[in-house]
């Protein structure tokens, strides 16, 4: 059970503090902050403070804030972390965004939330659907309308027409503002996949995993039933035989508890009554057997020139179908600088001993190259071994590694008044490593 | 003058302080004053804003308690939002203003009857949070009503409120009967109420460890399992955690619970998943390993654990710490999932380090190539800590998987080539360990290591390098130069390096005495004269004296063979691991420490143990004897009866022998540790959940070669049956179809008789370190044997039971063609070979014969139990006689029980199976007695001293696998020993003679 709960800004300001069990004073906040900032780098989420013998801090970092719970007994850090994650999600749903400012402006609302989600340190409920019956405060939106948000539109596909694309900020507004007459009834369904790939120095794909989820963000005050149709040839598990078609297979998937699966086995339809706010409706995982080749390949060569400089020649190819285009592609290599085409940039970060190569846009089926020359004092043949792997981080919109597609999205009965449904696909790199 | 000056100074300081504080108070007062005015405003909006401001100041730590009355005045309002804010304020300041808090009570009581359930619940919740004693009496009535409220939201809030009230005033809660109401709520129709009631009861039960508040019986378990499906995710966690405390009656029940918990593994909330894993891991212990379901369950556990690794890094960390435990307990679950533990480039460092640990745990011959390739990549990463750990991991792989050692060493050499300082140092440290594990195998790399001598700057690496040089001094040509170079800065080195250097040079000297005399002189004088570190100085002196008095002895000591190291060194100790498995998902599992190590006070400190595995793979059983009839009949046949054995055992020599060898070091160390364990552990374990007693394992000793039976175990597996079965199965092995039937009535064999012999302690012949052997007695008088006289005795020598006989020919003619045969007997004793009488026995000649025996012969219960009927044949006739053997010769050498097993068994044995005796006139100290008994394979498991009495806890095992436990109480200076004997089976009485031993 949770004894106290507090939210700190990254600078250690007290934003929210609530004591549930009266077991320790509020001075522990500073104890925690000192402890967690004493060392550089990330700290493990469970911290025991030795001079408060029976006090344990469990914390997460979300939106640049520390979300901390303390506990005295041998309780489950797992459920506490899971709860803190949910809480930050709830605060994001209710306040629209997660930031120091949003939390400060909505402290009364957050206190109200904290009152309902926890009682005497026991988690009560974290579903925004149930909670909305109890929450009285209105959110104060901290985000003024800005033109900048609209400028990001291209992020979700530039080819489509302007009015068919939702601005990226559309999904960051408080759910309760739907009480306002001006609030739109919208539903966003995101298919988000994270890719982790390791390609060996010989070009062999050593490991490829995709972790994906289908997230639904609902702004409908009272949504009845929603049916999400996935690819019909979607299959779960390894043993199933696959036909010739573009079968979509995942190793394992799990569903949000509100999802009804009676039509899933026959027609691959998820049925649910989405509550307001954001939920991961389905999570799935696929390892090793990706349906398509990894989207990027790198052909590196690292050598030492006559002047004792380290030469790195990197050729990067994008294997996506030609029409697709990738927007952001910064990249880091293990040690070392010079490059090829116009709108890219590169930077040497001595501190991390890394070269960053930024590629703003990369078309499918094309190839880019860069040559980095580095003066390394005391370069020996042995230090060639030290040139570490190349890590790629990217965001691929409108593409999923597994091939998972949403066939349809139906709301029944049809909601009166204007309602909009948005479906987005995006694949992020989680850890895309190419070894040299 | 000076005084005046300082006074002036003080005045000025005082002055400035005055103005400062004045400035402060005015502002503060101003703010508070303003707020006060706003709070008393008529406009609702303004009031609300003001309360918000108050709470904002409260959050940042400003003291706004002065506004208490004004805020409380705002309490009576219809505006729920405002009310909530006021309640929030109240919770915070009620403690510091208890008198004022009472002012609010009336409003609370009124709100508890509000038609709006939200307000009712809010009032109950808030009242419970006001931790002021006085308020509790006002709380009782509203709470009682709310516990029976029609609205589940109010009921679930009230359920938690009982726990809150219990924390403030436990007596009140009991007096008011809230606990019963709470128990009723477990059957509530609303799952949320059930979950909160379970949570509240669990918490209250923790502070009353002996109360039966949360009485877990199959009925309540069933209710909980039903509620599990309907609960919110958080409620599911409470219920699963509660289930984990239950111990199922048998494997069938545990399987059915497992089946109903398994669907939780695919829940999206990872805390639910982990709680379910905990329940399954615990109940799986009870399932027989050969059950199909067991395999299915193992397969089902892997995917959810893997899925946990795709969660947020914080969750991953906790998951990995838990997986680390699970992998140690059941490596088979994740053995095919090595890849998911490969480190990702963007994992936080704390996740990376944990993954590395698990990779090593999962490393096996099958996947070692893959693991090594990964580790080699990690060793070139940027993060220093991670790189170091990766290098170490390579070394650990070499030690763990022998086949990979060569590849590991070459990988390490590659890494040393990079010349990255910390990589080289780390590599040298692990190579030292590899040398220890595989001596004389990889010494060819020493040259490469020596090249890097100069770059080593960390004490650990320097010490490792010096060790290598010293150990292999004979193969390194310039070892003396190398060591000499270290010697120059001797005083600046850390102790670790100094000690290692001292030893290395002494080793060098012993290997190459001629060239290094000067060097060793130098280091010895440095260590003994110029150092103020006692460890170093003493080690120096020891070497010095060794070298100067007896160089050969020095060689034996210093260059002694070292024990090999193994990879188990970094595993968690099994008993701790078992406890931690019971705490999966809790803080204990993250710290890898038992909860008692970090939770203070009464709450939650309970030792948890995994339930014993019934019918697991180790137990052997034959299907035929598994039947109830065979089982209950067989046992008496193998249990010694009391009276006769008592005598024999008492004859054991307890007079202090002149030369008692020292006890093995392991024993003495164990005793020290055990004292503590028995002092606190035994008592605390007594109150704990019971577990089935361990099943004694039979091992292949020469006396009891065992017959492996591979068969499913029967569902109800109790120790009683086990004993019986063991007896029965040895009969089976000898080809007897039906277990010998002995009437139950004969269990109570004569108890008397032996007690007299009890005092006959001085009679024995001193045999310090061997089992006692009684003097020979005449078994077959010449009168009956047609001139053949046989006298004999039994002894146990080097693990073999022997029958020692003297055959005397008192007849007139020569005797030849001797042969011997035994009748069936209680322990299946049979001759292991023919009677070796090679030469004919001429008149008036005697011959000593030793006949080795085994215990695989046919079994039949004898009366007295240790009776043996023997037939001896010679050229004249066949002669029959009976003799009795001492039960102590059946005590096998591996009769030493694990301490934990002993504890568990001891407490499990009912009082009925215990017997007490007194042994008088035994002038032995407890230690001497324990040594002596150990000679007879009666092992001291633990010793503690209470009120001047030494308590020895001892165990012994009979050749047919029955354990006998004993407690020996020795009062210093009192020659009377008290013995409490216990045996797992109902026939302990028969065995209690063993106790008389003491």
TrEMBL record, chain A:
Residues 184-435 form the MHD domain. Pfam families: Adap_comp_sub (PF00928), Clat_adaptor_s (PF01217). GO terms for biological process: intracellular protein transport; vesicle-mediated transport. Keywords: Coated pit, Endosome, Golgi apparatus, Membrane, Protein transport, Transport. It is a peripheral membrane protein. It is found in: Early endosome; Golgi apparatus, trans-Golgi network membrane; Membrane, Coated pit. The keyword Signal does not apply. GO terms for cellular component: clathrin adaptor complex; clathrin-coated pit; early endosome; Golgi apparatus. The keyword Membrane applies. Its main location: other. Coiled coil: none annotated. Component of the adaptor protein complex 4 (AP-4). Adaptor protein complexes are vesicle coat components involved both in vesicle formation and cargo selection. They control the vesicular transport of proteins in different trafficking pathways. AP-4 forms a non clathrin-associated coat on vesicles departing the trans-Golgi network (TGN) and may be involved in the targeting of proteins from the trans-Golgi network (TGN) to the endosomal-lysosomal system. PANTHER family: AP COMPLEX SUBUNIT MU. Belongs to the adaptor complexes medium subunit family. This is AP-4 complex subunit mu-1. It comes from Poecilia latipinna.
């Amino acid at each position: 059970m949770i004894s106290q709960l507090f939210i700190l800004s990254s600078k250690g300001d007290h934003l929210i503090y609530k004591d549930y069990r009266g077991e320790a004073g509020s001075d522990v906040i500073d104890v925690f902050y000192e402890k967690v900032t004493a060392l550089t780098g990330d700290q493990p989420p469970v911290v025991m403070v030795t001079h408060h013998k029976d006090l344990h801090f469990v914390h997460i970092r979300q939106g640049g804030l520390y979300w901390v719970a303390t506990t005295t007994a041998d309780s489950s850090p797992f459920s506490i972390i899971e709860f803190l994650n949910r809480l930050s999600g709830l605060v994001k749903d209710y306040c629209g965004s997660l930031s120091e400012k949003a939390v400060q402006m909505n402290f009364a609302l957050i206190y109200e939330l904290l009152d309902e989600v926890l009682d005497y340190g026991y988690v009560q409920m974290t579903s925004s659907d149930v909670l909305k019956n109890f929450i009285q405060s209105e959110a104060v939106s901290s985000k003024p309308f800005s033109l900048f948000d609209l400028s990001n539109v291209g992020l979700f596909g530039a080819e489509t027409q302007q009015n068919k694309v939702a601005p990226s900020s559309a999904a960051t507004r408080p759910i309760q503002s739907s009480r306002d007459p001006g609030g739109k009834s919208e539903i966003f369904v995101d298919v988000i996949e994270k890719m982790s790939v390791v390609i060996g120095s010989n070009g062999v794909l050593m490991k490829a995993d995709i972790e994906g989820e289908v997230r639904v963000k609902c702004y409908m005050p009272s949504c009845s039933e929603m049916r999400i149709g996935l690819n019909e040839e979607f299959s779960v598990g390894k043993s199933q035989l696959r036909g010739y078609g573009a079968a979509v297979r995942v190793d394992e998937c799990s569903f949000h508890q509100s999802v009804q699966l009676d039509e899933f086995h026959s027609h691959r339809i998820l049925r649910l009554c989405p509550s307001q706010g954001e939920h991961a409706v389905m999570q799935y995982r696929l390892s090793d057997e990706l349906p398509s080749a990894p989207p990027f390949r790198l052909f590196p060569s690292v050598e030492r020139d006559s002047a004792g400089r380290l030469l790195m020649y990197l050729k990067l190819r994008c294997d996506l179908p030609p029409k697709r285009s990738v927007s952001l592609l910064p990249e880091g290599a293990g040690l070392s600088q010079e490059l090829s085409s116009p709108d890219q940039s590169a930077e040497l970060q001595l501190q991390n001993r890394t070269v960053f190569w930024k590629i703003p846009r990369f078309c499918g089926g094309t190839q880019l190259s860069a040559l980095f020359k580095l003066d390394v004092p005391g370069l020996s043949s042995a230090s060639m071994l030290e040139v570490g792997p190349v890590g790629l981080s990217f965001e691929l919109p409108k593409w999923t590694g597994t091939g998972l597609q949403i066939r349809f999205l139906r709301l029944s009965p049809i909601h009166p008044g204007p309602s909009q449904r948005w479906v987005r696909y995006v694949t992020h790199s989680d850890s895309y490593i190419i070894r040299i | 003058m000076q005084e005046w000056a300082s006074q002036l100074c003080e005045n000025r300081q005082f002055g400035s302080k005055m103005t400062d504080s004045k400035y402060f108070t005015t502002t503060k007062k101003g703010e508070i004053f303003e707020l006060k005015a706003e709070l008393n405003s008529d406009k609702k909006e303004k009031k609300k804003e003001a309360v918000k401001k108050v709470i904002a100041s409260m959050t940042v730590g400003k003291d706004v308690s002065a506004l208490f009355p004004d805020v409380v005045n705002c309490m009576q309002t219809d505006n729920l939002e405002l009310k909530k804010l006021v309640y929030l304020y109240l919770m915070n300041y009620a403690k510091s203003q208890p008198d004022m808090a009472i002012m609010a009570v009336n409003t609370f009581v009124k709100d508890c009857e509000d038609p709006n359930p939200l307000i009712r619940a809010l009032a109950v919740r808030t009242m419970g949070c006001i931790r002021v004693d006085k308020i509790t009496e006002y709380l009782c009535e509203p709470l009682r009503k709310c516990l029976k409220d029609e609205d589940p939201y109010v009921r679930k809030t009230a359920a938690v409120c009982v726990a809150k009230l219990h924390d403030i005033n436990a007596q009140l809660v009991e007096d008011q009967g809230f606990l019963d109401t709470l128990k009723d709520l477990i059957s509530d129709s609303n799952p949320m109420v059930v979950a909160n009631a379970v949570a509240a009861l669990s918490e209250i039960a923790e502070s009353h460890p002996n109360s039966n508040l949360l009485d877990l019986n199959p009925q309540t378990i069933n209710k909980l399992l039903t509620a599990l499906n309907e609960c919110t995710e958080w409620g599911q966690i409470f219920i699963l955690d509660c289930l984990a405390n239950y111990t199922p009656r048998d494997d069938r029940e545990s399987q059915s619970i497992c089946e109903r918990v398994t669907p939780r593994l695919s829940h999206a909330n990872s805390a639910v998943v982990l709680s379910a894993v905990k329940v399954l891991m615990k109940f799986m212990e009870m399932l027989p390993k050969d059950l199909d379901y067991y395999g299915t369950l193992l397969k089902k556990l892997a995917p959810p654990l893997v899925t946990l690794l795709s969660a947020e890094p914080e969750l991953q960390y906790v998951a990995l710490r838990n997986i680390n435990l699970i992998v140690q307990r059941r490596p088979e679950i994740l053995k095919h999932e090595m890849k998911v533990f490969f480190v990702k480039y963007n994992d936080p460092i704390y996740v990376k380090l944990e993954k590395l640990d698990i990779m090593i745990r999962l490393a096996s011959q099958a996947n070692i190539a893959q693991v090594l390739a990964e580790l080699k990549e990690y060793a070139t990463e940027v993060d220093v800590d991670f790189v170091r750990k990766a290098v170490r991991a390579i070394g650990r792989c070499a030690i763990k998987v022998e086949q990979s050692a060569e590849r590991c060493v070459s990988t390490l050499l590659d890494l040393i080539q990079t010349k990255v300082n910390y990589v080289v140092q780390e590599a040298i440290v692990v190579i030292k360990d590899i040398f220890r594990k595989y001596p004389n195998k990889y010494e060819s790399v020493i040259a490469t290591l020596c090249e890097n001598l100069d770059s080593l700057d960390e004490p650990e690496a320097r010490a490792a390098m010096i060790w290598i040089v010293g150990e292999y001094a004979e193969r390194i040509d310039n070892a003396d130069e190398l060591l000499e170079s270290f010697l120059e800065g001797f005083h600046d080195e850390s102790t670790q390096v100094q000690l290692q250097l001292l030893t290395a040079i002494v080793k060098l000297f012993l290997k190459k005495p001629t060239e290094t005399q000067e060097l060793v002189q130098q280091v010895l004088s440095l260590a003994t004269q110029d150092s103020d570190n006692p460890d170093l100085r003493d080690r120096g002196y020891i070497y010095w004296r060794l070298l100067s008095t007896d160089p050969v002895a020095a060689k034996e000591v210093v260059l002694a063979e070292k024990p090999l190291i193994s990879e188990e060194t970094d595993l968690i100790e099994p008993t701790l691991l078992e406890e931690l498995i019971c705490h999966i998902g809790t803080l204990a599992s993250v710290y890898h420490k038992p909860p008692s190590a970090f939770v203070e006070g009464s709450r939650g400190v309970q030792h948890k143990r995994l339930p014993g595995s019934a019918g697991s793979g180790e137990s052997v059983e034959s299907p035929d004897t598994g039947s109830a009839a065979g089982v209950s009949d067989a046992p008496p046949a193998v249990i010694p009866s009391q009276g006769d054995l008592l005598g024999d055992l008492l004859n054991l020599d307890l007079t202090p022998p002149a030369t008692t060898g020292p006890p093995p070091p392991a024993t003495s160390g164990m005793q020290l540790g055990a004292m503590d364990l028995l002092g606190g552990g035994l008592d605390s374990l007594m109150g704990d959940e019971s577990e089935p007693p361990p099943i004694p394992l039979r091992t292949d000793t020469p006396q009891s070669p065992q017959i492996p039976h591979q068969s499913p175990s029967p569902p109800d597996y109790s120790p009683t049956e086990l004993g019986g079965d063991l007896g029965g199965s040895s009969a089976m092995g000898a080809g007897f179809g039906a277990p010998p039937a002995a009437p139950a009535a004969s269990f109570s064999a004569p108890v008397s008789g032996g007690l007299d012999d009890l005092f006959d302690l001085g009679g024995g012949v001193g045999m310090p370190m061997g089992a006692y052997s009684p003097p020979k007695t005449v078994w077959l008088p010449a009168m009956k044997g047609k001139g053949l006289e046989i006298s004999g005795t039994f002894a146990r020598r080097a693990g073999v039971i022997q029958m020692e006989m003297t055959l005397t020919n008192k007849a007139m003619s020569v005797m030849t063609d001797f042969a011997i045969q035994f009748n069936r007997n209680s322990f299946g004793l049979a001759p292991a070979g023919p009677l070796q009488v090679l030469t004919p026995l001429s008149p008036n000649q005697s011959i000593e014969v030793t006949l080795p025996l085994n215990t695989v012969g046919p079994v039949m219960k004898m009366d007295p139990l240790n009776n043996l009927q023997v037939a001896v044949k010679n050229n004249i006739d066949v002669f029959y006689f009976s003799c009795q053997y001492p039960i102590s010769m059946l005590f096998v050498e591996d009769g030493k029980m694990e301490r934990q097993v002993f504890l568990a068994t001891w407490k499990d044995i009912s009082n009925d199976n215990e017997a007490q005796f007194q042994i008088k006139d035994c002038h032995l100290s407890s230690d001497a007695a324990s040594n002596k008994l150990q000679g007879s394979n009666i092992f001291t498991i633990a010793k503690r001293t209470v009120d001047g009495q030494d308590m020895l806890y001892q165990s012994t095992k009979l050749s047919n696998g029955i354990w006998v436990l004993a407690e020996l109480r020795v009062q210093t200076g009192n020659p009377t020993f008290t013995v409490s004997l216990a045996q797992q089976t109902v026939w302990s009485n028969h065995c209690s003679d063993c106790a008389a031993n003491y």
